């Protein structure tokens, strides 16, 4: 089941989206990413870069996800940036690709910054993209 909620936050607009950890649902996350980036008036090429980065991050997480896991995606919107945090429950002993891998090269080329954490059976990838030129 897909859930879309926006809890009250101070400062940033936050959107939480949870979908099954299945490649068939990645289009939902890509579409949400594009919509929020468009809200920030990102250029079309910036929107496409961010969609590709989210897709790549999700693919990395799907490779380590537990069976029947859910991808939890948190979008934080500020005046000139969009932060996307995607996390999933992971199988025991699984690891995300090394920062020297092609997947990480893609993430760092397409975003302002990218980072990952993995602990307590959960992996999270955070992507930050600032709009070119700011406001």
From TrEMBL:
It is an enzyme of class 2 (transferase). Its EC number is 2.7.11.1. The keyword Transferase applies. Gene3D superfamilies: Histidine kinase-like ATPase, C-terminal domain. The keyword rRNA processing does not apply. InterPro entries: HATPase_C_sf (IPR036890), HATPase_dom (IPR003594). This is Serine/threonine-protein kinase RsbW. Keywords: Kinase, Transferase. One of its GO terms (molecular function) is protein serine/threonine kinase activity. Residues 20-87 form the Histidine kinase/HSP90-like ATPase domain.
């Amino acid at each position: 089941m897909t859930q879309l909620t926006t809890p009250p936050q101070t400062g940033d607009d936050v959107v939480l989206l949870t979908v099954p950890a299945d490649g068939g649902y990645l289009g939902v996350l890509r579409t949400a990413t594009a919509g929020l980036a468009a809200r920030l008036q990102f250029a079309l090429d910036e929107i496409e870069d961010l969609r590709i980065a989210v897709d790549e991050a999700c693919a990395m997480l799907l490779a380590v996800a537990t069976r029947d896991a859910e991808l939890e995606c948190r979008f934080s919107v500020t005046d000139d940036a969009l932060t996307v945090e995607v996390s999933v429950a992971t199988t025991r002993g699984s690891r995300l690709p090394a920062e020297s891998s092609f997947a990480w090269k893609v993430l760092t080329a397409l975003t302002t910054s990218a980072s990952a954490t993995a602990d307590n059976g959960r992996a999270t990838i955070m992507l930050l993209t600032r709009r070119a030129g700011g406001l």
